[in-house]
Amino acid sequence: MFREVKAAYERIRNVVNTTPVMTSSTLNQLAGCSCFFKCENFQKTGSFKFRGAYNALSQLSHEQKKRGVITHSSGNHAQALALAARILGIKAIVVMPEDAAATKVSATRNYGAEIVTCGSHPEDREKAVEPLRKQYGYTLIHPSNNLSIIAGAGTAAYELMKQVDGLSYVFCPVGGGGLLSGTAIATKGLTPDIQVIGVEPKNADDAYRSLKAGKIIRVTNVKTVADGLRTSLGNHTFDVIKRNVDHIITVSEEEIIDAAQLIWERMKLVVEPSGAVSFAGVLSLRRRLRSRSVGVILSGGNIDTASFFETFKQHLGTVESETKSTP
After folding, report:
1. Is 284 tagged catalytic?
2. Which of 47, 73, 74, 284 is catalytic?
3. What separation in angstroms does the CA of 27 have from each of 35, 135, 259, 294, 297?
4. pLDDT, block means (10 residues), the chain with 327 residues
5. CA 20 to 30 Å from 185, out of 69, 132, 155, 160?
6. Which domains does the chain have, with CATH numbers?
């Protein structure tokens, strides 16, 4: 599929953002290696997902575009598909779980998609999509288990490899597996001996267990701060990962939060927990990575900041009250 990744890159390069690669001497010291952060938090809609969504929609037939598309997502793919559909003039229906972050729901709606709410369990999403797809003839654009989505997602790593020479490892988050699949195809296609490491939360370790078992093991009732990684592998992503990914490791909730905090505080980058999972993996393997050059995919920056800024508003109210009461 390396040829498909290259074709996707040429297809979308004038529409997507060429995201920067950033470094931090402080984080390098903590990790014991040279980290090159691929900042997909600066991608349109705030995550790598726009790459795959635009690649997939741009290849639909005239009839498919006319009927419209449907998907299910907790937020990042939802926003990406909504914007790509708006750019291409396609109607988009997005099924989102009831516990999706309010900021992601709002952004998806503002990009022009029609939102349908479903239950919070992963299987609820597909159950809500299927009757709508059958009734209206929408084309399903799966968030990860779609070859065009995988190829588009792989352009982030393809770009990274063009921007940085001499990488020994690339660390990438894994949820549904679209980004990890595309990353493995792109990196192995350009540098066959590079090590591709998938990282996922211990509380959502279906990819880790699937590779161990040799078959897809689905997640149920997942509780993790990395909300974008709660979904399971599909047949396409499992096949690619099984053949191209060197290892999948897991990290704790505390490790995820600590990694995100380090990136926020030291690099001043807004990265969501799902996006920081890759760096959490680097820190967990710091002894193995000593003095190596390591690519780290920061997959997105769409975090619900409402509670964060509410603290400032409460402080503002206190200050104003104190000011008025001062003689």
Report:
1. no
2. 74
3. 8, 51, 10, 12, 15
4. 96 97 97 97 96 97 95 90 96 90 88 90 83 92 93 97 96 95 96 96 93 88 84 92 95 95 96 95 94 96 73 63 57
5. 69
6. 2-44+147-298 (3.40.50.1100), 49-140 (3.40.50.1100)
